Amino acid sequence: MNQLKLFITVGIIVSAALVINVPIISAKVYERKVKSQTVIAIASDLHDDTNQPLWPNVLNIKPNIFLFLGDNVPLDTLDESVMKYEYAKLATVDGFKRLLASEIPIVATWDDHDYGADDAGAEYKQKEVSRKLFLDFFREPSTSNRRKHSGVYDSKIFGVNGRRVQIIALDLRYFRSQLVKSLNKSGYIPNTDVNATMLGADQWTWLKNELKKPAEVRIIMSSIQVISKDNGWENWMNFPLERAKLFKTIKDTGANGVLFVSGDRHFADLSIMNGGIGYPIYDFTSGPFTNVNNSTLEKNKYRLKQQYLGMNFGLITIDWAAYGKGTWIKIEARNIDNRSVLHEELPLSILQQGVLPYSR
Fold this sequence. Notes:
By secondary structure, this protein is of the alpha/beta class. It has one domain: Alkaline phosphatase D (PhoD) (Purple Acid Phosphatase, chain A, domain 2, 4-Layer Sandwich), CATH 3.60.21. The protein is 25% helix and 22% strand. The protein has helices at residues 3-16, 27-35, 55-61, 80-91, 94-102, 112-115, 127-137, 201-211, 240-253, and strands at residues 37-43, 65-68, 106-108, 154-158, 165-169, 180-181, 188-189, 217-222, 258-262, 268-273, 281-285, 303-308, 313-319, 328-334, 340-347. The strands form three sheets. It has a seven-stranded mixed beta sheet with strand order 4-5-8-9-11-10-12, covered by helices on one side. Strand 4 and strand 5 form a beta hairpin. It is globular and about 55 Å long. The chain starts with a helix and ends in a 13-residue tail after the last strand.
């Protein structure tokens, strides 16, 4: 176990020692505890729009917020009629219809396949058509700020003072520079061009301002992995200067409580590193929500928990008063049997600037 994992493990064990000897609680106390939680469900990689068996598990949990991390529909086309057809199919899925009927708040972003082309960035020719269909499908109001800027990035804050969750949905497609192919064309190598970008100038400015807003927990939705860099395909290390800028922006804004959630890889994963922001960076990768097409365990030197390759959805439970001992965050991936196949718990006190040195 590396030094960062050891540090976090010791910190969690010490914090957990405060809540081991907990008496059986009354029904009224339990009811208050339930009301003190924020539950966030997560889906990524919904390519198969005819078979989505995880919906009953998700909806029975009754989450407070639902996140779509991308690859929500299989577009991969320049044809607007095909795009509309694929969205129309998702709209007929019973679980999705029940989600809409439940009025659970939805925050969505896109990845390459629902943007319009595999691994596509700013060069994709139909991005404005795709953007309009995306916003229309997810019922973005005609007067919203999201319709007034390019791309689909967005931010929302849920909860009251002391129990606020900020959801930041990044757009890693609309503005992204060209990827650099490896010599054998089997993957990508880092693009170190100082002018290359992931977010584009306007989205960077927006993100900086969003991170300055008051919130106790900040969940940043990244459609691709932020920490893992060993798979050779899409991740933030395709643009190392941009990833360094991301971490520096968090540090410089003084934003505490940041937790990344990502998708794209068709497996559940949890990574941790010291990115020089002053506290550990966690990246929880969720999916696939439907089709399982990745049967290989991938390298990831920052991995905290074993990958899970089967169908799954993500679940983050923020307990604002865990047995009266402060706020704790539980991260889970749950499978078709509603069994937790990846599980980690951490106190929010770990996600505060100054917990770790600023070294990388």
